[in-house]
Amino acid sequence: MERMRRFMLVMMCVAAAGALAIAAWVAPSSASGMDQARVKLPSTHFGAENPAAVHGFSQVTGFDQAKVAVNPQAPDATPVGQATCTACHAKENQNFTHTTHALGMNAALAANPATATCEACHGPGSQHAQNPSLEGAIIAFTKDRGTPIKTQTESCLGCHAGGPRDQWLGSIHQRNQLSCSDCHNPMAQLSAEGLEAKQSINETCATCHKDIRQQFNRRSHMPLPEGQMACVDCHNPHGTISASLLKTDTVNETCYQCHAEKRGPFLFEHAPVRENCLNCHTPHGSNQHALLVAPVPMLCQQCHSHTRHPNDMFSEQQLATGMAPDERLMGRGCVTCHAQVHGSNNPAGPRFHK
Questions:
Q1: CB contact at 8 A, 224 and 230
Q2: What is the C-alpha separation between 310 and 84, in angstroms, rounded?
Q3: What angle is formed at CA 69 by the lines to CA 63 and CA 74, rounded to 5 degrees?
Q4: What percent of the chain clears pLDDT 70, i.e. is strictly above it?
Q5: What pLDDT, on a 0 to 100 scale, did the predictor assign at position 159?
Q6: Pairing of β 285-286 and β 268-269
Q7: How many Cβ atoms are within 10 Å of 205's Cβ, its own excluded?
């Protein structure tokens, strides 16, 4: 027993000595490797004196190509540079510092001192600097400083043309004299993305579309108040080929983006469903079940009156709480039997029973 204890003690000492020897042999190479890694990893601080050298690029894509915006109301004005602008607009500059535009423009300015920053959006500022109260001397993104809406939007589209904004000209928002600054605030980071004028896209849209926003307070509604979707999931506010600014060509195609099971094709089609989802549903909110425009069976009887069912037209009196309840209107009404109302692929489903 005593020999066994001595043997175990010796083995533990040998193992400890071996571990120390291995650690001493590995430590120098690990330390040198860490030092090399520290040398290779660049700083990510945008406030460095030379961010171009820190990040390893000579040009900043996009922002270094920014040109001084054209202001038709001040054709003789000349650029004065960012330092002149911030000398007076210190508060605006402080708010602007935290925005996406500021990060890109500051990096571009450090890489190329000739890059336009403030004047890339506001136009040349010499006349404004000489007479700040002169309306139109600078491109102002407000309604009361003399800059036409067309000039304001052209300044933004100088960089943001194309893509989702291809249909801006002629869109309902453009025809109603909306400016980019009515929905966006590039001078402050108020929203998580998109430089919105409000904290979210939905709040921004509700600034004008208060009637639509109220529909989402109804019993049955799209999950917009819960934050599970946004107005831009269905609409493109910058313009589309449709009057309601839908992101697709038709209402049905827009609905199918989420409700793909309703697309079909079906062996037995339901004509009003194939024609337009809005024949039966309202897209934003309803006090009826499943966003219906009217309660079942009144909704069905707008088309199916005195057909195959010999009774007279159903009314509220035939509902379960009426004076003469009818068993065919209880539960889910017509849909209790005609369950596949959007269409059926069952050979026995011409009446949408299966």
A1: yes
A2: 84
A3: 155
A4: 80
A5: 87
A6: unpaired
A7: 21
Q: Which residues pair with 220 in a beta bridge?
A: 286
Which secondary-structure segment (H or E) carries 344? strand 343-344
CA neighbor of 283 nearest in space, from 270, 292, 273, 294: 292
**Amino acid letter at 278?**
L
Q: Where are the beta strands (DSSP E) in 196-324?
A: 220-221, 268-269, 285-286
Q: Report which of 303, 296, 335 is spatially closest to residue 319, judged by C-alpha positions.
A: 296
pLDDT in tens, 33-62: 545 545 544 445 555 555 555 555 555 556
Q: Give residue-wise pLDDT tens across range 8-33.
A: 766 777 676 666 666 555 455 444 55
Per-residue model confidence (pLDDT) at position 2: 64
Q: Which residues of 289-327 are buried (b: 16+ CB within 10 A; e: fewer)?
A: eebbeebbbbbbbeeeeeeeeeeeebeeebbeeeeeebe
How high is the pLDDT of residue 243?
A: 85
* Torsion from C-alpha of 159, 164, 166, 168, nearest 10 degrees: -90
Residue 216's pLDDT band, with cuts at 50, 70 and 90, is very high
